[in-house]
Write a structure and sequence with these properties.
The chain is α+β, with helices and mostly antiparallel strands and 312 residues long. Helices cover 28% and strands 13% of the residues. It has two domains: 252 residues, FAD/NAD(P)-binding domain (3-Layer(bba) Sandwich); 47 residues, no CATH class. The strands form four sheets. Strands 2-4-3 form a three-stranded antiparallel sheet. The protein is globular and about 60 Å long.
Length: 312
């Protein structure tokens, strides 16, 4: 597999479980895509945590919610697969990848007023991930762009400090890579104590960074081969069939042959481009009933998404 993102880590685990030998190749020196930098919230109706908590949910309600949020653009077959399989996948990841999930005490977004919506139970996130369990790979998994441990000092929403309502959502602190974002915090009288807690952001990762950590740990525990900082130069083709790839690592060229195929792990950075939107192609503008026109589409993926799979 070319590209190591969270969903492709899941596919690597599934492939090995079916008897395949999997090799993961990543161009970047670190692992984890957009999900690793996100709030890490999963939508899973009828999940095992709901059942353990005695919360009612149904297939009909979940489909009704998706029909509303899809605003007429839904693909019924996709909706049904998501509703029917999400809970099974969540339980499998908990059992086989040892991911500790918990319910979020948040109303279903983005449309809690939608038919079939639930005030609690469908939104799931990971418990904090102990980074030490990654061993020598600890520094190779992408961190969240936010400082989360400072959220404990926020009594509520505080946009001036880059805070949200707490650590549940994940986006609960100033940006990690902008030193100026910490300046308002340095003016607080309790800054020395807060500064001492910043290491918790790396030691016990939350939100999307936690999900990436759990999934990659499962890959390592199963002995799946991983290579980072590799440039895939081209695909090897024999009689119209892809049979491998050529990659460069630290100046050395290597030809790798695949017995079953090569998976190009496209990312959210490989979707529409601004020029497509201007010419009337790419992402369509959508709106939900009663909520006015949708904002103009924009590229939200981080700059390190190169779009290599499309070029290959």
């Amino acid at each position: 597999m070319c590209g190591i993102r969270c969903r492709w880590l899941c596919r690597a685990l599934a492939g090995q479980a079916q008897g395949l030998t999997v090799l993961l190749v990543e161009r970047s020196a670190v692992i984890g895509g957009t999900t690793a930098q996100s709030g890490g919230i999963l939508w899973a109706p009828m999940n095992y945590l709901q059942q353990e908590a005695g919360l009612a949910d149904s297939r009909q309600e979940a489909l009704a919610y998706l029909r509303y949020t899809g605003a007429g653009e839904n693909r019924p077959a996709y909706m049904e697969v998501l509703v029917d399989e999400a809970a099974r996948v969540l339980a499998a990841l908990h059992t086989h990848a040892q991911i500790e999930f918990r319910l979020l005490d948040l109303a279903e977004f983005y449309y809690p007023m939608a038919p079939g919506s639930k005030a609690f139970g469908r939104l799931v996130t990971c418990a904090p991930f102990p980074a030490a369990t990654l061993g020598i790979w600890r520094d190779k998994v992408r961190l969240s762009p936010f400082y989360h441990s400072l959220a404990h000092a926020l009594p509520g929403p505080n946009p001036a400090l880059g805070g949200s309502a707490g650590p549940q959502v994940g986006h609960s602190g100033p940006l990690r890579h902008q030193d100026a974002a910490l300046e308002p915090w340095r003016q607080r009288p309790d800054w020395p104590a807060l500064a001492a807690r910043l290491h918790e952001d790396e030691a016990h990762r939350v939100a999307g960074a936690a999900l990436a950590g759990y999934l990659f740990r499962a890959v390592l525990q199963r002995g799946i081969a991983v290579r980072t900082a590799c440039d895939v130069e081209r695909l090897l083709v024999d009689q119209g069939r892809v049979v491998g790839l050529t990659l460069t690592h630290q100046g050395a060229v290597e030809h790798i042959h695949a017995t079953r195929g090569v998976v190009l792990a496209t990312s959210s950075g490989d979707g529409w481009r601004p020029r497509d939107a201007r010419r009337g192609r790419g992402v369509r503008r959508r709106r939900a009933p009663g909520h006015g026109a949708a904002p103009r589409p924009r590229r939200t993926a981080p700059g390190w998404h190169s779009g290599d799979p499309r070029q290959l």
